[in-house]
Structures are given as structure tokens and as C-alpha cells.
Amino acid sequence: MTIKISEVSKFYGTQKALDQVSFEIGIGELVGFLGPNGAGKSTLMKIITGYLSSDGGTVTINGETIETKNVAIRSQIGYLPENNPLYTDLYIREYLEMVAGFYHLQNKKEQVLKMIELTGLKAEQHKKIGALSKGLRQRVGLAQALIHDPAVLILDEPTTGLDPNQLEEIRQLIRTISLNKTVMLSTHIMQEVEAICNRVIIINKGTLVADGSIDQLKAGQFAQKQIIWIEFNRTPDLEAFRKISGLRKIEAFNQTTYLVESDDSTDLRPAIFRFAVDNQLILLTMKEQQQSLENVFQDLTRKV
Fold first, then answer.
1. Can you give the residue ranges of every domain in the chain?
2. Residue 194 burial (CB < 10 Å; 0-12/13-18/19+)?
3. 215 to 3, 180, 193, 220, 296: CA distances (angstroms)
4. CB 197 within 8 A of CB 218
5. CATH 3.40.50 for the 227-301 domain, yes or no
6. What is the pLDDT of residue 303?
7. What's the mean per-residue pLDDT of the chain?
8. CA-CA distances (angstroms) from residue 174 to 48, 140, 153, 224, 271?
9. Model pTM greater than 0.90?
10. What is the distance between the alpha carbons of residues 58 and 196, in angstroms, rounded to a whole number?
11. Cβ–Cβ under 8 Å, residues 254 and 284
12. Which residue stretches of the chain are H helix?
């Protein structure tokens, strides 16, 4: 199923949490949803799942509008909230059967067993949720989000607090789930996004600031700056070098090798080539460097 967010806005009093946010996510996409604290991520996820109404714009799934009162379409959505609220005094199977009952599943017990198998809870199924580790509780949260076989899965910070082993297990589980579902995953962990997502959406102060593949983001398509490795055959006139238009920063690694950074999206390479020709220098290396996803995120979200 396709999720379409069209000019969605949300206010809390006079504070604007979301400002006309728009994008689409298709089936089979595993999208990383990023933003600093207070950017509006959880608010938008709650609007998508129908837990919260917007103050403007629409959210549709396969053309059907998501509303707090539209219970039928919400049955197509699975949701794992950030704090994973669970009934800790219930047993795993007991809890999942209760959740399955909310969706009026005809094959309730069979579906519970299927989810227990899928999420790796078979050995723990007779334990109380309160006795489980953080990683196992996250598995229970995923099981409840998947119990009704939704077409859309919304995961808010699904790997928070997990150790490295638990992290990889949950990653693999999410990869498997995403093969035939539309998955939107919110996290603050950049490595998490690079490890499992095929697309990234970034919002800042309620506004969409980037939407593209990880390669597009790391190539600087949205960060509006360029980083280039340069090696000359001899030491250049640094005073003249610094006067190249659009050059913001020069970092010297030795007398002939430099890392330069632009102050906007202007391509510095033609100007650097002309500088080399005018100063009778030979360019041994001129290579654009991909930025880390973390640097791109910081660049986009620190702007006023």
C-alpha cells in the first residue's frame, strides 16, 4: 500500500509542530524518518496511524483518508510507539491473544503462534512480559504491531536501548518484515538507517528538509555543500588558493594535499582547475568526497 502525506500541519497551541509536510512511501520501501528532538517526528507518526488528528492537510493509504474516527483503515496499520507500552503482568501469549481480539481475528490462536515464531519468542512465550529483557520486549511490541498482518508498519525508535546482539536481531527482523510491507522507521541512530533503510526523510522544526536515497544524501544533494580532496604536484600559493570563490574551508594534510569545503552548492571543481592552470600547478588528485549521514543530518538540522 502507498502512504501519501499531503501538506500536513499540526499546532499545539500557538506552536507549529508540523508545517505543510508532504511525501509518499510505496510498498516494499523501508524509510528512515529522521529529525532532532522536537522536530515533529512522533507527531506525524501519530497522525499517520490515526491516533492524532492534523490541523491541515491529509494522510491517505491507497487513496483512503486516515482519520481518528476511521477505524477500518486503521486496521491496515501496525504501530510500535516509542516507549513500547506493554501490560507487564500478562504472559506473552495472553497479551498477544488480547491484542488479536481487538482486531476480531478469526484465527486468533494460529496468528499468535505465527507471530511468536516470526519474532523469535517461541522459547519465551510462557513468560510474563515483566520478566523479559529490553530486546525481548521490543520483539513483543513488534509482534503486537504485526498480529493483524497490516500493510503499513510504523516503528518509532524500535531499537532504543538494545545491546549490539539484540540490535542486529531486530534489524534482521525488520528487514524481513519490510519485503512485502510499507515500513516507516524513526530513529536517532544513523548507523541504523544506513544498515537497513533504502530511503531517508529528514524533518527539522516541522519542515521537510530532505527526501532521498542514502547515496543522494551522502553525495551532498541536500546538504548544500561540497567536500573535495585535492593533491597538487607542489605547494600552491595558499593566499591565492583561499580566494577561490565559494571556498569556505581548507584543511591541509601536508604541503601538497588538501581537503576543501564549499560554502554552498556551487561546484568548486572548475574554479580549482582554473587555479591550477593559472598557477602552473598539476592536479594529481581532485576527488569529491561523500559525507557521512551524520554530517549531512547535522548540516540540515542546525540551520536556522
1. 3-218, 227-301
2. middle
3. 23, 23, 12, 9, 11
4. no
5. no
6. 58
7. 88
8. 19, 13, 10, 32, 46
9. no
10. 28
11. no
12. 41-48, 71-74, 92-102, 108-118, 134-146, 164-178, 190-196, 214-218, 238-241, 269-278, 293-301
Q: Which amino acid is located at 41 in the chain?
A: K
Residue with cell string 510505496? 26
Q: Largest Cα–Cα distance of the chain, in whole Å?
A: 79
Q: Helix, strand, or coil here: 260?
A: strand
* Cell numbers linked to 49: 496511524
Fold designation for 3-218: Rossmann fold (3.40.50)
Count CA atoms within 13 Å of residue 96 on its CB side.
34
Q: Which residue has the higher pLDDT, 170 or 49?
A: 49
pLDDT, greater one: 296 or 233: 233
Alpha-carbon torsion, ordered 197, 198, 202, 206, to 10 deg: -90
Report pLDDT for 90.
Answer: 95
Q: Which residues lie below 8 Å from residue 85, measured CB to CB, with a gap of 6+?
A: none
- Cell triple for 21: 509536510
Of the given ranges (21-35, 43-57, 290-304), which has the lowest mean pLDDT?
290-304
